[in-house]
What we know:
- By secondary structure, the chain is α/β, with parallel strands linked by helices.
- The chain folds into 2 domains: 188 residues, Rossmann fold; 166 residues, N-(1-d-carboxylethyl)-l-norvaline Dehydrogenase, domain 2.
- The protein has 14 helices and 12 strands.
- An 8-stranded mixed beta sheet has the order 5-2-1-6-7-8-11-12, with helices on both faces. Strands 4-3-10-9 form a 4-stranded mixed beta sheet.
- Helix 6 links the parallel strand 11 and strand 12.
- Helix 7 crosses helix 13 and helix 13 crosses helix 14.
- It is globular.
- The N and C termini lie far apart (58 Å).
Amino acid sequence: MSEATNLRIAFMGGGAIGSYLGAYLTRAGFAPVVIDPWPANVEAMRTKGISITDSQGTFTIPVQGLHLCELQAVRQPFDLVFIAMKSYDTAWAATLMREYLAPAGCMVSAQNGLNDETIAHIAGYERTVGCTISSITVALEGPGIVVRGGRSGRDRGYDIFRVGELNGVLSPRAQQIAAILDHVDAARATTNMWGERWAKLATNSMGNTLTAMSGLGAEALADAAPRFPYLRDHVVRETVMVAQALGVSVEPIAGRPAAAWLTDASAAEPDLPPAGSGGRRARSDGAGGWRASTSQDIAKGRRTEIDYLNGYVSRRGREVGVPTPVNDAIVTVLKEVEAGSRAPDPANVDRVWELVQAARATSAGRPA
């Protein structure tokens, strides 16, 4: 790739991540193009700029916004394309942007889930680089308005961005992309992209979806549904077991080695009240913590990424013969919430537990 400031950079997707990164890189002296299918969002970028509010303060900066239908006017290809769409939009977004990618350029997944191979099949493995974005908690509050919760990674000594080649080589371009993203927050290159991906998948799957089905933040849900911490930890245990069966060396999850989750989460279930009679029911207004991405989707009536989070763990578990009853049950219940047949409520966590118990009884040959 060329000198960083001369790179042609595009963000395919102007949601929370695409807008946040696009605004920060613009402020750092780059000239990224943010492409989005939401006309009001593109118009806001052009006229008012993107407004960012985070722990560092608030700033607003005009960016180059482009609607999907205006891509046909682009004549100079991009050196670096970040795919920043929902996971279920990966294939068409990568296919579209492949036609605007320079021969020596590359695509980077700036998404939840493990979408790198989908992108690689479309753009080519030699033109695909991985990037996990961990613990960034951003939300698009309206056209051109992004809010980030919590402290920056730099303030916590934590690398938000981990960039790496899919083959594990520490390449100059991975280091260059990490250096670019370091203008946004702490970033580094890695030789274990798949281990980073599975660690991020575990983090997303462990609480994101359980809180989404409850309508509460994690802190309030732990008070309202005593089984929540137990189920959350077993999501991680199942995820690590599947990853290890696939030959992945999983990076630390929530600050703990992957192996520690296997030991700690395998302990006997704590003495808890029967499902349905658990702890105090907190009000379902999202109190008790930041709304994670799946909770934001449920609140806005949008399709969730459950098939690319817990659902992905379940699918890969079936491939390698690792049972994933907790992830399976979460998928079932959250899909009911997403479809509107269940309202978000802490009692849904008890329903997950009931399904897990039924699956375990069936596996053991006992009546469910």
